[in-house]
Write a structure and sequence with these properties.
By secondary structure, this protein is mainly α. Helix content is 72%, strand content 0%. The chain has one domain.
Length: 266
């Protein structure tokens, strides 16, 4: 939420299409301050890894044959990817609304699908970079097998797309930073922290297992972790179905809001 909206100088007669230009603007926006938007989250995640792996290593039961530190790294990487994908679109939208430059996105002949696509793709790239950075650092602390690399990439991209689209929705609904911050801290953070990042859901009492299965972020984390270890709390096909459905629903929600102009055109 603290990254700044930077002016971007484009050629007077830019040959890029509107979609490509908006995507370029959104990528450049977070990359210009990559120390804050990409590398700073890695520091926070490494602190989680160091503290939780040391304190809980002998007290938390995870998959058979998997060390707790190894179990923890993919969950932390996915959490970093999801939270930063949400932050990218939500902060960009709220800043554009508050500074009044949203008109330069709404006036060009861009369809809602192109606008959503550009925002979400940029958020996916930021989430991917954050996740890769966490995995690279985490590999120093614990060995990471790679049982299903396609699943790792697929769940990372789908999860980032879902949270990126949700960030766009939250940014549209919010009128000021306080409202967006409340959405992030009371919705996104609890969903990610209670998604089995630090523990296996199968070790919880039955009530909390059932509650965890209502959390869509749990399926993103569990499917992503399955790609590394070939073990998961639920079927990876169930996780894929839930995550794919979430992406479709949230993207459709964002497109509906853009098409209607809700809180965008005054």
């Amino acid at each position: 939420m603290s990254e700044h909206l930077l002016p971007i100088a484009l050629p007077a007669h830019d040959a890029r299409g509107g979609f490509t230009t908006l995507l370029y603007k959104e990528v450049l926006r977070f990359w210009k301050v990559s120390m804050q938007t990409v590398f700073a989250p890695v520091v926070t995640t490494v602190l989680y890894l160091m503290i939780f792996a040391h304190v809980l290593a002998n007290h938390v039961e995870v998959f058979p044959g998997v060390a707790y530190s190894s179990f923890l790294v993919p969950g932390l990487a996915m959490m970093a990817a999801l939270q930063n994908a949400f932050a990218n679109t939500s902060s960009s939208m709220i800043q554009s609304k508050m500074t009044g430059n949203l008109v330069f996105i709404l006036l060009p002949p861009l369809s809602p699908a192109e606008i959503v696509g550009a925002y979400v793709l940029a958020s996916m790239l930021r989430g991917f970079l954050c996740g890769v950075a966490v995995l690279l650092v985490g590999a120093w602390f614990a060995p990471l097998p790679l049982a299903h690399p396609v699943a790792v990439l697929g769940f990372a991209m789908l999860g980032s797309a879902a949270l990126g689209a949700l960030g766009l929705v939250a940014g549209i609904y919010s009128d000021k930073v306080d409202q967006l911050s409340a959405f992030q801290h009371f919705v996104v953070v609890p969903l990610t922290f209670l998604a089995g990042v630090f523990y296996s859901v199968q070790t919880l009492p039955p009530f909390w297992q059932a509650a965890s299965h209502l959390n869509p972020v749990f399926y993103m984390v569990d499917g992503f972790r399955w790609g590394f270890f070939g073990a998961a709390d639920v079927s990876p096909w169930l996780s894929l179905g839930v995550v794919g459905g979430c992406v479709a629903a949230v993207v459709a929600w964002a497109m509906l809001l853009l098409r209607s102009g809700y809180k965008l055109r005054h």
